[in-house]
TrEMBL record:
The keyword Hydrolase applies. The lineage of its organism: Bacteria, Candidatus Curtissiibacteriota. InterPro entries: Nudix_hydrolase (IPR020476), NUDIX_hydrolase-like_dom_sf (IPR015797), NUDIX_hydrolase_CS (IPR020084), NUDIX_hydrolase_dom (IPR000086), Nudix_hydrolase_domain (IPR051325). This is Nudix hydrolase domain-containing protein. The keyword Hydrolase applies. Keywords: Hydrolase. It comes from Candidatus Curtissbacteria bacterium RIFCSPHIGHO2_02_FULL_40_16b. Residues 1-126 form the Nudix hydrolase domain. One of its GO terms (biological process) is ATP biosynthetic process. Belongs to the Nudix hydrolase family.
Length: 144
C-alpha cells in the first residue's frame, strides 16, 4: 500500500521494504482498506501496524494490480503505493505479517524487491523520490 521514505539521519535517504511472513517475498508494506477509509489513511495505518513506523503521506507513488486466489476464487487486487515521510516510531500490532524489514538506500531497493510489478512501479517512482527528498531537505512544502 505504500513506500516509506525516511530521513532519520539528516541527508540520508532510505526506503522501507518488508518481507512477508508467509510467502517470504520482499515488497513495500501494504494492506487493505477498512470501512470508510481512504487509501492514504490505510497506508498510514498499515505501516504502523505492520512495522511500527509512524509516517505521513506525501503523494501517490504508483499502482500495481495482480491476481491471487482466496478460497479457490480468483481475485484481482489493486495496490496503491504512496511516498511517505518517516515521522517516528509507533506500535506494530500486526507484526506477525512481516518476518523482516530493511531500510535501504534507494540504489539497493530494486535488487531487494521480489515481484516484477513492484520492481516496475519502483523504476517509475525512483526519480520522484529523489525530487521529494530534495524538497524536504530545502524546507519546501509538499502538496498532495
Amino acid at each position: 500500500m505504500d513506500e516509506t521514505v525516511s530521513e532519520k539521519e539528516v541527508g540520508k535517504l532510505e526506503v522501507l521494504v518488508t518481507q512477508h511472513s508467509k510467502h517470504k517475498g520482499w515488497d513495500f508494506p501494504k494492506g487493505h482498506l477498512e470501512t470508510a477509509e481512504s487509501s492514504e489513511q490505510a497506508a498510514v495505518r498499515e505501516v504502523e501496524e505492520e512495522v511500527g513506523v509512524k509516517a505521513e503521506v506525501l503523494e501517490k507513488a504508483g499502482q500495481t494490480q495482480y491476481f491471487y486466489y482466496d478460497e479457490g476464487e480468483k481475485v484481482l487486487k489493486t495496490v496503491n503505493y504512496f511516498f511517505m515521510k518517516y515521522v517516528g516510531e509507533g506500535e506494530a500490532t500486526t507484526a506477525f505479517e512481516v518476518s523482516d524489514k530493511k531500510w535501504l538506500p534507494i540504489e539497493k531497493v530494486e535488487d531487494q524487491l521480489t515481484f516484477k510489478a513492484t520492481k516496475e512501479m519502483w523504476g517509475n517512482a525512483r526519480k520522484r523520490i529523489e525530487q521529494l527528498a530534495l524538497r524536504l531537505r530545502s524546507g519546501q512544502a509538499i502538496n498532495h
